[in-house]
Amino acid sequence: MTPLSNTLPHAPRKPDTTTAMRILIAQIRSALPFDQSVAQHCSGNCQGCSMKLLEFLATELNVWEQRLKQGEQPSLADLSQLAKSAWKIHRVLQRNGLIE
Questions:
Q1: pTM attached to this predicted model
Q2: pLDDT tens digits, one per residue of 62-90
Q3: What are the DSSP E strand ranges found in 40-87?
Q4: Phi, then psi, of 81 in degrees rounded to 5
Q5: 34 close to 51: Cβ distance less than 8 angstroms
Q6: Contact, 32 vs 99, CB < 8 A?
Q7: Alpha-carbon gap, residue 15 to 3, rounded angstroms
Q8: Which terminal Cβ of the chain has fewer Cβ within 10 Å, N or C?
């Protein structure tokens, strides 16, 4: 009889939380317009200040990048919280017409 582990197809391994956090940070940085000028952020018709939200999120990303460099390992809750914040800010930016 062969062991069960030898008969199942090998699924790709999920990344550890440090790698997952680095991937999440890269995805957030590529998806949101951190490099737009203040004039582009402030169109006057806003539901939440896009500039302040992006500054907040940029600070969070910078803090996590620094923590990762220092060897800290994020928890799944940390990943979830950052993803949730980024998603909420993404929706506000969509409502304000800064992204599609």
A1: 0.79
A2: 999 999 999 999 999 999 999 999 999 99
A3: none
A4: -65, -45
A5: no
A6: yes
A7: 25
A8: N
